[in-house]
Amino acid sequence: MDRIIFATTNEGKMKEIRMILGDLDMEILSLKDAGIHADIVEDGTTFEENAVIKATAIQKIAGGIVLADDSGLEVDYLGGAPGVYSARYMGEDTSYDIKNQAIIDQLADAKGDERSARFVCAIAAAFPDGSVRITRATIEGRIGYEICGDGGFGYDPIFFVPELNKTSAQISAEEKNLISHRGKALRAMKEIIKEYISK
């Protein structure tokens, strides 16, 4: 096994993934890199369920080790929305500039702790022996009062990290990987993969 397929076509996400898993001495491929075109219906009700649906579906097509993540933003003031619907919030083709502004607008009356939010990431690994392992991690923060920063992607420009006094879109990729939900979940998954390939 000299490769891992990560079930995504998101290049921003792949950049983060390669930075963290790069020392596994395995090729890390996106669906596009692997030439896989699959329309998978993510109809789970949790991040974990959706990650498992994706990982197992692609593993059946491609074999080997397949990773998939489902991640999103939970805003407490909005009852946990957009949650598992983060990518499809307001429609899949709606730009994140519009989504981000809409969330800020909905929190117009929210102050301080009322703006609490978190990024959640669940990663599933589907292995050739049929086993599936899952890691989950979060990062707590608040929704900012305006869109700030041009780094990252998705909801990063409105996710304010109090201890850094910056949004996720204002910090370096290296700094983000140390503290982010995906960074934490990926590092935990890396240990599981090392354990699997050393058997």
What would you note in describing this structure?
This protein has helices at residues 11-21, 47-62, 96-106, 173-179, 181-197, and strands at residues 3-6, 27-30, 65-75, 116-126, 132-143, 159-161, 166-167. The chain is 31% helix and 24% strand. The model has no long low-confidence stretch (mean pLDDT 94). The protein has one domain (3-197): Maf protein (Alpha-Beta Complex). The chain has a seven-stranded mixed sheet. It has five helices and seven strands, in the order βαβαβαββββαα.
Our estimate of the beta-strand percent is 15-25%
Write down how many β-strands occur, each being a DSSP E stretch of 2 or more residues: 7
Number of helical segments with 4 or more residues: 5
Instruction: Return the CATH topology.
Output: Maf protein
Q: State the helicity in percent bands.
A: 25-40%
What do the pLDDT scores average to?
A: 94
Radius of gyration: 17 Å
The H/E string reads EHEHEHEEEEHH
**Poorly predicted tracts of residues:** none
Strand order of the largest sheet: 2-1-3-4-5-6-7
Tally of distinct domains: 1
Major beta-sheet overview: 7 strands, mixed
Q: State the name of the first-level CATH class.
A: Alpha Beta
SSE-based structural type: alpha/beta
> Oligomeric form of this entry?
single chain
